[in-house]
């Protein structure tokens, strides 16, 4: 009997974990009843009752498993580690907040049985904040334009991954993995299924500006070199422009020595423009250095505090 692994990352999801586990098990028992399964919750050091609820679920059902991290290792590392810890013939990653439709599990499995090694859900519409969805769309288009590989727009990681691809992920040894980019770069032929992302069932989103920025920079520094090359090109262009303006000012001053005022405004504007550009590109180069430093330190994806039912 083939085995399906379901991986659910959690962080302060006390209102969602029990209903989610019931919904997933119900979906599997109705539409995937010819398969064995394991349901893995990987918790990022929740501060509410999430862990106690997961423990209770594990005690009631030995097929429900848990990994408790010692701290919050971020929304990229923890789900990735959960996938690596799965033992099924295929692994499905799904969010704990009910934004990913549970009834798509059956569709994923059907496409997998047709031969696809990767089957992903791709948002075509979303019931989240429209402004945020618009910003996400612009970001994906920008990333796609400058990425070394064609990225998958509005893909959150929600999908099915064959055991052979999971083994590929294990062999990467990447301390800062970006699953969405890895799927686009290294994944075999995939099947994309469109869906509408629902609103969060309960609780508050854990994403804030800094977490989203961190994830955006991870993808940007992992799959683009445009930032570094832009610094070179823009620096060269502005150098030529500066020489031209300086020469023009010199000629005008020589022709109209007494009537042509040099003025302080152009000098101040030039200083501010060059200063702003320097700070921007120093910061961008710093992001690349941070990404390199994390990979060179080669720290573990997560540090486990406890495992249950493994």
UniProtKB/TrEMBL annotation:
Species classification: Bacteria, Bacillati, Bacillota, Erysipelotrichia, Erysipelotrichales
InterPro entries reported in the protein's UniProt record: Glyco_trans_2-like, Glycosyltransferase_2, Nucleotide-diphossugar_trans
Membrane-spanning intervals of the chain: 233-255, 267-290
GO molecular function terms attached to this record: glycosyltransferase activity
EC number: 2.4.-.-
CDD domains: DPM1_like_bac (cd04187)
Glycosyltransferase 2-like domain sequence ranges: 5-157
Location of the protein in the cell: Membrane
Gene Ontology CC terms: plasma membrane
Alphabetized PANTHER family for the sequence: PROPHAGE BACTOPRENOL GLUCOSYL TRANSFERASE HOMOLOG, UNDECAPRENYL-PHOSPHATE 4-DEOXY-4-FORMAMIDO-L-ARABINOSE TRANSFERASE-RELATED
Pfam families linked: Glycos_transf_2
Main localization, broad class: membrane
Keyword terms, alphabetized: Glycosyltransferase, Membrane, Transferase, Transmembrane, Transmembrane helix
Source species of the chain: Holdemania filiformis DSM 12042
UniProt feature coiled coil, ranges: none
SUPFAM superfamilies from the UniProt entry: Nucleotide-diphospho-sugar transferases (SSF53448)
Keyword Nucleotidyltransferase included in the entry's annotation: no
Protein name: Glycosyltransferase, group 2 family protein
Membrane topology field: Multi-pass membrane protein
Annotated Gene3D superfamilies: Spore Coat Polysaccharide Biosynthesis Protein SpsA, Chain A
Enzyme class: transferase
């Amino acid at each position: 009997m083939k085995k399906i692994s379901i991986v659910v990352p959690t962080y302060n999801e006390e209102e969602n974990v029990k209903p989610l586990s019931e919904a997933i098990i119900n979906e599997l028992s109705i539409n995937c009843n010819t398969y064995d399964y394991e349901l893995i919750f990987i918790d990022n050091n929740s501060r509410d009752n999430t862990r106690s609820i997961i423990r209770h679920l594990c005690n009631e059902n030995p097929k429900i498993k848990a990994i408790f991290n010692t701290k919050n290792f971020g929304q990229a590392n923890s789900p990735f580690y959960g996938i690596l810890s799965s033992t099924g013939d295929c692994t499905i990653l799904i969010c704990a907040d009910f934004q990913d439709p549970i009834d798509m599990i059956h569709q994923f499995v059907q496409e997998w049985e047709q031969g696809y090694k990767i089957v992903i859900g791709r948002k075509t519409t979303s019931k989240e904040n429209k402004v945020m969805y618009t910003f996400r769309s612009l970001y994906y288009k920008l990333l796609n334009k400058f990425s070394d590989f064609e990225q998958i727009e509005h893909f959150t990681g929600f999908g099915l991954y064959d055991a052979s691809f999971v083994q590929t992920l294990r062999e990467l040894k990447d301390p800062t993995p970006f699953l969405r980019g890895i799927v686009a770069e290294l994944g075999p032929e995939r099947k994309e299924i469109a869906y509408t992302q629902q609103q969060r069932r309960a609780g508050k989103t854990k994403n804030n500006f800094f977490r989203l920025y961190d994830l955006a920079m991870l993808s940007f520094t992992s799959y683009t070199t445009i930032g570094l090359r832009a610094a070179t090109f823009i620096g060269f262009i502005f150098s030529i422009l500066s020489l031209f303006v300086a020469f023009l000012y010199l000629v005008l001053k020589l022709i109209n020595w007494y009537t042509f005022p040099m003025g302080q405004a152009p000098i101040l504007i030039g200083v501010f423009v060059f200063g702003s550009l320097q700070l921007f590109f120093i910061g961008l180069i710093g992001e690349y250095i941070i990404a390199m430093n994390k990979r060179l330190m080669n720290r573990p994806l997560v540090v486990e505090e406890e495992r249950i039912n493994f």
